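[job 4471] stage=fold_predict status=RUNNING
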Amino acid sequence: MVTGDDFTLPRGTTRGTFEAPDGVRLSFLQAGLRSARPSFLLLPGWSMPAWVWAAQFGPLSADRAVFALDPRGQGESERPDTGYDIRTRARDLHAFASSIAPVIVVGWSLAALEVLEAVHQFGALPFAAVVLVDSSVGEEPAPAPGSPLIDALQADRESALDDFVRAVFASGRPEAERPEAEVRALVDGALRMPLAASLALFPRDIPREHWRDVVRSIELPLLYAVSPQFQEQAWNLRRNRPRTQVEVFHRSGHALFADEPERFNRLLVHFSRTMGALQVPLHR
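[job 4471] inference complete, writing structure tokens
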């Protein structure tokens, strides 16, 4: 049994390592056995570890393998001095996905953009389908300008990370409250990455139109699962790319897979079994 800091992952979960193209050691978690079905590859968001997907391992691994990758600098992966730009991390992602292909790649937040960048750089293979989770993909309306998180990290990093971690989960619902030990573990994990490296992860030099053009051009089955903050972008993407399956989690925060894990897991299983056909959203 593998533990992520203080949090026990489902029995049968194992940890492995993968060497990125530049030699950096990446760590990953695996549950379930590889089969004829595409594996799931789960990618955590900015500064988060692979074990943030703990609620997905058991339910999704019943008939296939499930992998969760610690991107460079995050979780148990190596923290090199360089390579924190989105192009390098997309290369890491593509190399790892190619080693376990075919995969249904699931990217949360910043990782959704890394998935799009991997598709832009290398094409659709080795992906069988793409799931983007609560990330701005360049459709309208644009998020509010400014960088309050970046400013806060530079002013008081530990306090900013504590606020950030708490804010990604739903508030006002006692059943969605995260244990204090889990919050602390996520903050401590994020602090392991040097501040400069964590700031370099934000792709501020890339215009929003880049992500819009990439996501509209994807020819793979595409699911866009969002909280209310991105629902207008989601429906605009659906209008501009009609084959997109959209799912809005109205009662969730940014980490909707943790706030409503049963619903999210059902959605991924449903999508994996019906991908390729135009689907009517399960909820709106």
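[job 4471] summary: Confidence is low (pLDDT under 50) at residues 278-284.
[job 4471] exit 0
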